[in-house]
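ok so for the tutorial part 2 we go from a plain amino acid sequence to predicted structure tokens. step 1 is just haveing the sequence, like this:
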Amino acid sequence: MTESSTSTSAPARPRAVLLLSGGLDSSTLLALAIRDGFEVYAMSFRYGQRHAHEIAAAKRIAESYGVAAHVIVDIDLRIFGGSALTADIAVPKDRMTADLSSGIPITYVPARNTIFLSYALAWAEVLGARDIFIGVNAVDYSGYPDCRPEYVSAYERLANLATKAAVEELSRIRIRAPLLDLTKAEIITLGASLDVDYGMTMSCYDPTADGVACGRCDSCQLRLKGFADAGRRDPARYVGVEAR
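step 2 — the prediction. this is what the tokens look like for a chain of 244 residues:
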């Protein structure tokens, strides 16, 4: 008589698609999703943005975390224009801190998060993933309408009306935005607790040709204020500041 042994393998991690821009928020989001046990499929976009150095940052970060796959989608939003990030319009600089979340600035890219989430939703269906992570934030942000909790909830409802998985398999899609209600300082503190290397990230809207942050655009100002409020030094390179 022979004995048979049953080996117990670790349960498969749930798959998730995560929008990875290469910036501070999405890098923190990636570390958080991995900590929470997800098998992450990262998606970045080369959409004609003037701050294309963020694509190189996204590649570094995805490789550093060993994501299951990282795709870079090429779309050209310059054909529409309408934003300082995709058209020949000056990026606002040196705005007062109180003005950064007042009104919708010219750096808003029309329907960008809706477009990005739609691509992520399509990939999630193919992968059998039920979770889509997006690093939007409604506290310290630049007034974008597609960074609000109402938007996230509305898109989740749409996803569950528009997908085969939700309609036929009754498997709900979840749009996860865990940074939504955090300040920039709280996001940085969270990232530090997860050992995020913020030196790899790129937040600037108008970096130099070799990828040095301007330190003056809305994104740079929000980032610098976040690090100051968190009591930490920002490892990013800034124009006129020696590398730390």
